[in-house]
Amino acid sequence: MDDKQQRIISALVENKPGVLFRVANLFRRKSFNIESMTIGHAETPGLSRMTITMSCNYNQADQVMKNLDNLIDVRRVEPLDSRNATVRELALVKLSPGSPPTRPEIMNFIETFRGNVVDVSTETLTVEVSGDPDKINAFITLARNYGLKEVARTGAVALSREMIPAETTAVW
Amino acid sequence: MSGSEALVEALRREHVEVTFGHPGGANMPIYDAISEFNTSPNTGKGIRHILARHEQSAAHMADGYARVSGKVGVCMATSGPGATNLLTGLATAYMDSSPVVAITGQVPTFAIGSDAFQEIDIVGMATSVTKYTFQPLRARDVPYAIKAAFYLAPTRRPQPVLIDIPKDVQQLEDDIEFPNTVHFPNYQPLPDPDPTIVKTIAQMVLGSQHPIILAGGGIKMSNAYRELQAFAELLVAPVTTSFMGKGAFPENHPLSLGCMGMHGAEQTNKLLPESDILLVIGSRLSDRTTGKIEKFCPNTKIIHIDADKAEIGKNYKFPVVSLVADAKAALAALSREVEAGMMGQHREAWVKKAHEVIEATAEMDTASSTLSGVEAVKLLRKILPSYAIVTTEVGQHQMWCEQHYQVIEPRTFLSSGGLGTMGFGFPAALGAKMAKPDVPVIDIAGDGSFQMTENSLATSVEEGIPVTVVVINNRMLGMVAQWQRFFYNRRYSAVNLGSSPDFVKLAEAYGAEGVRVQSSAELKAAVTKAIRSTVTTVIDVPISPEENVLPMLPPGAGIKEMIVG
Q1: Chain B contact present for A63, CB below 8 A
Q2: Predicted ipTM of the assembly
Q3: Class of A86-157 per CATH?
Q4: Where are chain A's structural domains?
Q5: What are the percentages of helix, strand and coil residues in chain A, rounded to 5?
Q6: pTM, two decimal places
Q7: In B275-347, where does DSSP find H-type helix?
Q8: B558 touches B291 (CB < 8 A)
């Protein structure tokens, strides 16, 4: 059964020393592959939310969820995907366009992606772009035409949607 | 009160009677507090400390104690090498789901991270082989860590817990309070089995023509012996066990099919795919149990019950029904449900067939006159009482025990099945003897494994813990040699143990008794004497270096494809 696809796991964890290590250690010893992981404070003081993106089949994702939930510092684990959740990522992209492309052409490209120029030097400009991870991928691919120099991505964060049509509540 | 005094008081409150360990620089305040506690006139029985000769053995002793007593086993070590030496023992307990609490000393808090003398990140290293780890950084945090460790280790799926206490935390005086309870929002004891799933399973097994129950080590850990027997008898279903499950069901019971798996009974392995329902309880269905999983009972509906939800779908991907529950509670609920159902007679032919399997297996047990490994194990079964506790090391002798040592009573067979740790059996036997001082404890060992922890002879003599070690001695690393004969064209590589010590003299050097036996009669006499002796006896049993463990399931083969000779 190879239903490999991108899957997002949201985990509410205790915000205390060693938790990130335990989660990372779990992924290492079970040979689970992470594409991205983000951690930040959650709504409740003392708790953090981890958003983990993986490309795997259902059985692997099921094992990740169960093993995560077995960790004593993990409060809740939730499967998410783009149908039942809002998924966003932010990237900072440094461009070094050189001479050929005109400034309006670059600005046009950045505006198409609703990016913001956040730093400018004589040689470079840094663009902040956010949105669905696919949008970031597209931006970075096209940015290669404009002298792509450096990329820093936050990895995806996601929250479940409140209003979901009944037939899409079952994910994966 | 200091941190170490708080530790000892917290252990007392958990009714700890014995700890196994080794002192060193970073846990001296703990040892001092134990000594002070035990010599105080107000202390009752105190907390006995058993001095191991290697921290790995201390962990195995605690593990053996836990497996026999059903209580938490406690071991201790100093920082650095003491702590790393514990790891193999903790990993052994982790793989076999045994509740062990390890208490390590650590360098003082101000030195952590400085690569101080005997500093190691044991919390990091132990994370993969424990349920949880604590590193209290204030003396007042010590009682909570102990309370929590004794709550976490034995509940749900039992697993080890490590508490790493920096030396200054052991020494500092603090305001100490002892919590009565601890709370982990995401960790509660297992809930009662889901009644809907129980009903579904009950209906499936009642309607089944050819059911088999496969019992794993989970039965032992949840103490579900009686519930398993009652359920099997109610259902009139034959029961087989994994190696870890050996002894979960009395092997002399008319419904017992013995062990299945890599070195299980051939007839049992062959019968398994003929079952229509296989009810797996407390087994992770490991590679040693199932053989190649894709070939394991392809036409059988498998029902999987386990205390750990992560075991469902891990090795065997497609159980038709699964239930996350404690084995004892699940079996009791199933029995109630099955009792309420209609018991048909439609399984007569199946049970008859199962009986034929059992008898055929028994017929193979024909006696021979030479003293082989198999013969020695069979003889031990004949002369040892059913309540005697047997531990094993790892290798051929262990598999001969699987095949020929019938386990009848609960908690009388201890072996490292998951990690397969050579050197487990002897220290585990000492731990077992501490739990049941009045019961004979026998470590059935190989000459290779015994040499991994033979220095526990010093512990057994000094602490007055008499056990019997039967060394099935083929002067080889026998199981590796067997694989080299079978799968590496008889090219022996690094398996010859010809220059091992004379085990009789070795025993005597430690102040234990040693005896070499050449015949069944001599073995019988030696064992009969040894189990009554007040000092540990090592019985050296020389056998042929060429003896194999058969039948066996070669690696990658399906459950029916055993090598028989």
Answers
A1: yes
A2: 0.91
A3: alpha beta
A4: 5-81, 86-157
A5: 30, 40, 30
A6: 0.95
A7: 287-290, 327-340
A8: yes
